[in-house]
Structure formats: structure tokens, C-alpha cells
Amino acid sequence: MKITEHVHAIKIPFQVKTDSGTLERFVYSYLIFGDEICLIDSGVSSSEKFIFDYLEKTGHTPDEISLLILTHSHPDHVGSAQSIQKVSGCEIAAHEGEKSWIEDVDLQFMERPVPNFHSLVEGSVKVDHVLEDMDVVELGSNINLKVIHTPGHSKGSISIQIPSERVLITGDAVPIQGDLPIYDDFTGSIQSIKMLMGVEDVELLLASWDEPQKGENVHQRMVEALDYLQNIKKIVEKLASENSSSEPMEFCKTVLKELGLPKPAANPIVARSFQANLKELE
């Protein structure tokens, strides 16, 4: 999907199978065309097929990808990085806070056991460039990518602003109301969203789990994200005071029921989010 002359979006469907059922999901990867091509996020395992097919349709080849930026280390963002690098020879960039999990996916699985993790991720890749807040990546043709550190969803999550295109790519930093609530740091998530709301001259919001948003919808999506997180906080506080089960998965199911989310949403990474809320209460 062509977003602007230089920014294109690729929607990649996948499934997450849990003990409670199967979740139908999708994730967006983004191609940035300057004098060089930069790919933002690699999707899950086998996503290179979608990405390479799209490149071919636009008159390009995989070996034109010079850089793969990973907004963070989670499976639906790093899953096909290994294949993409192998075919294109591209370098890989990410924040220091995500580096260890990108370079050792077995460590990531041990510390954050996502359902069917190894079917979503091909393997580990080396991070060639560590990105920091306010770094600028130059692609030529006046296409510059400004790095914004937006922790909360994960400690090293980054967003990418492309000033010349009036585009803001946010990874999973801006949660979607009614979608899976996934974050390691609740307060960090709130602060990051508020910071992104202050980024000037943004016409297009490109998240990983949402359709592209334009104009007034950009600000509205961020307001909705803040409201959603605050509602989750209230529900967690209420259930904690009612002495609901202290077992993480049982507590997760209770919170999800209050939120009106489907049973298959109950999995360890969502439970981890609500545990982050409980830690802040303590």
C-alpha cells in the first residue's frame, strides 16, 4: 500500500495459538524509499515473501534493502529478519534495550515465553547499529529518519519520524483500544504516548497493529490509547482490591472478561501487562 511517494506499508497476516484458542492477527512492516531502501520491522517468520513480492511489484529487488530497523525485539517484528538479511545483505539497527533479545531469541523466549514463539521467529540476528533517542538516519533524496525512544511496550521500543513525509511510525508504542494490551511498563507507556502527541507536523500515524491513520485521527488515536490504558489501570486496581486470584493467568482472564476481550487473548504476555500494573500498585 502506497502511503506517500517514499513510504509504503505491507500488511502481514499471522496467527497466535494459545491454550484458549487461536488469535487471528496482522502486523505492518514499512518500506522507506530514498536513494537507499530501509525496511521498518520484518514481521513474523516467512514474512519476507510478502515483502519481496511487494518490492517486485514496485520495480525493486530485495538486494536494494540496505537497512532493516527493528522498532523492538518481539516476534512479530523480528521474525523474518534472518531471511531478509540473508537475501538482501542489509544491516540491522535497533535500540540498545532490545539488542540482547534480537541477538539471542532463545534468551527472549526464556524471559518472555510467547505462545508458539519458535514458529513466529526464524532465529537470532546481529545488531549492526545501536540507535539512540534523537539519532537521524539519512537515506538520501531528503529522506531522513528521526529516532524517538518510546519505552513502555518494551524498554527499547522506538518510533520513527519522517519529517519530509509528515509520517510517524510508532511500532506498538500506541496501543489500540480494544486490542491486546501488551506493555512492560505502564507509566512508561503513558509517558511515551504523551511525548508522541507533542511531535509536531505529523499528518500520518503508522502503527504496527492498526490501519494507517490520517489528519485528525492521528491525535484521536493517541487520546484513545491513553483512555484505554487508564481504563485497564482502573479495572486492575478494582480487581486487586476485591482479592481476585493472585495466580497471573487466572487474574489475566478476570481482567480480560471485565474488558470484554475474547478468551483466546488470555496468554502469558497479556498476563505480564496486568502484572506490571500490580507492581506499580505495590
TrEMBL record:
<protein>
    <submittedName>
        <fullName>Beta-lactamase domain-containing protein</fullName>
    </submittedName>
</protein>
<feature type="domain" description="Metallo-beta-lactamase">
    <location>
        <begin position="26"/>
        <end position="209"/>
    </location>
</feature>
<dbReference type="InterPro" id="IPR050855">
    <property type="entry name" value="NDM-1-like"/>
</dbReference>
<dbReference type="InterPro" id="IPR036866">
    <property type="entry name" value="RibonucZ/Hydroxyglut_hydro"/>
</dbReference>
<dbReference type="InterPro" id="IPR001279">
    <property type="entry name" value="Metallo-B-lactamas"/>
</dbReference>
<dbReference type="Pfam" id="PF00753">
    <property type="entry name" value="Lactamase_B"/>
</dbReference>
